Amino acid sequence: MAGNRMQKIGSVFSRTRNLLRIGVIEKPLWFDVYVAFPPLREPVYRVPRPRYGKVKDVVRPIFYQEDEVRAKFYRIYGSGPRPFDLSQSNYKSTCQRFVEKFNELKEEGKIEEEKLFAETGKALLASGIILQRRETDKDRQDVETRDSVLHLQLRTVLEEIQEKKKDQEEQTPESAETQKENPLSS
Questions:
Q1: Which of 3, 102, 156, 164 could make an S-S bridge to 120, C-beta 3.0–4.6 Å?
Q2: Measured between alpha carbons, how far is 2 from 138 in angstroms, rounded to an integer?
Q3: For residue range 96-148, what is the model confidence (pLDDT) as tens digits?
Q4: Burial of residue 183, with CB atoms counted within 10 A of its CB: 0-12 exposed, 13-18 middle, 19 or more buried
């Protein structure tokens, strides 16, 4: 059949031409166009040749040092509450300002590498740029732990209140009975 895509011998044109010759199918619309304008190279299936040896990737991954700073910035602070304003040609994102300040402080060399990221955040805060830390998994775990402890404390307080009410209810009927027996004693 002409529509069988499993055929790997010949092209679609040659198989269709042969089916037309023996009268199995009607002439498709594209057949005359293909005859008038044949392709430069006949589109036939060719088995890809296996490659021997390891193919080395000639394009190295490109990473700049500021990419690491940006990645850490977005991991800690996120992308911020507002979208980027790309309509202004001189717009600098908070991350870009952070990277520039980071590089500036690094070039001065007064601050240790480990403290440089935190000091950059403090320097931006001093210049009026407020950075809000993103909630991390550890923060969520701390909140869940605090919530569970608070829930446990509330439960114990509630149980204590309920026990006091039961004790008061038990004492109230006893005192009522004693008043019925000795109404003058009180």
A1: 102
A2: 62
A3: 889 999 999 999 888 887 788 888 888 888 888 878 777 665 655 666 677 77
A4: exposed
